[in-house]
Fold this sequence. Notes:
The chain is about 45% helix and about 10% strand. It has about 500 residues and is of the alpha/beta class. The protein starts with about 20 loop residues before the first helix and ends with a strand.
Amino acid sequence: MPAAFVHLHAHSYFSLQEGLISPEDLVEAARKNGMQSIALVDHRCLSGAIAFEQVCRSAGIKPIYGLEIELSWQGQQGIIVLLATNQEGWSNLCRLSSEVMLAESAAGETAINLEYLAVCSEGLIALTGGQRSLLDTLISRSLEQRALVWMEELRKIFQHNLYIELQQQESQQEIHLRRLVKSTQLANIPYVATQDIYYLDPADEALQATLAAIRLNMKVKDLKPHQTAPSQAFFTTGPEMEQRFAWLPEALANARRIASLCNCNLPVGGTHFPEVDLPAGKTVAEVLKEKAYFGARQRYGQIDERISARLEYELDVIAKRGYEPIFLIVEELLEFARQNGVPISSRGSAASSLVAYCLFITNPDPLALDLYFERFLNPARSSPPDIDTDLCSRRRDLVIQHVFDKYGSERVAMVATINCYRPRSSLGEVAKAFGLASSEVRRLVESLPHHHAFGDHAHSDQEPFAALESANPRYQGVFEQARRLLDQPRHLSMHPGG
């Protein structure tokens, strides 16, 4: 008996304002359907990869990491799906996603060209993209010869790691697919069957359209078909896929073959600190110890046995965990801030560290205040310690720029935060997409409290829209869809200092 079908084109809700499925629900659907692996190919964004990896590991499902991006060629563009076969492939997915996201933030939605794709192609399997691909567009316009030229361009980059992606999400699409297969047989490129998944249940098609309208700042009624997810973009079972592609069983077998080739293990759980500048012949442990003792003499005048014993104990724990670079990096940044007149203020458990105090990272004296080092760094703790420091908001950018200058822009990135839908934002956006007047949208939103703790409504008997729904029954559809979007990712933001 052949292995179960493998989905290679599934989006989660980290396809921001496009997908509706959490990584947890996506993996659970695969598990329930006896699938041994599944691919997550969010559009332009890799923010869901870690959550996906964690739930796959818990469920005993092999994760396949992928990315869906737009590709441009001769004035046209369409999507392409890229799957990582190894860690080099994962690194290239990261490069491609970063390129797209940075370009998008600077100049709107953009597409990758073939030249850049070729540079980032190692360790990747390419699927042509299905019904929204350049290939399908060319075939549908009876440009078969041009389609073959396009296939050759892709084959030059991916060679044997290129597959023609077939999607038959509606019965009438079989006619187009048979024509596509006939037109591309001479290219001798293998076919693979996929389903373009955006939601779990067919009934969620309307909600996905609302999400598309929100993303495009449009009303649902004004959407064009190409502006939403493809029709019938729900999670299909293996038997359903086998029935659809009974006329081309090799496309089903190739989905399983591709899954067997994708064996990328994300490098999660490891710690990788930046390299710090060290004097010739000195180790990072030696430099930290010298700085700590030098600072202790500045702080205390003389170093007695109590100070020395505490320093040695802390330095030993820090060295065993390999955390010396953390202290040296933060010490250098705060010294730069002081020299440039940027006000700083330390807070949190780092005040319990004598080493941090002697490096002038923190100001409370842990010995005088009888603070325990273990509150900051317990030998039994597995995660790195936090050294929380506030920089003056007016001049914080000066210190942030110093980090980029010192370590190189190719090695530094601001921390992203994920902004999620809360009751006010979900209600306001859905109501606007439904076409309610601005004054009515404002009235509904202002009826809700300004602050909801994260996930409050998920664990409370007091559903956030209950009172409003009772008073405004004609908007029941608005409330139902707004409720479904609660806690889903809305967009990426930038941490002010991380």
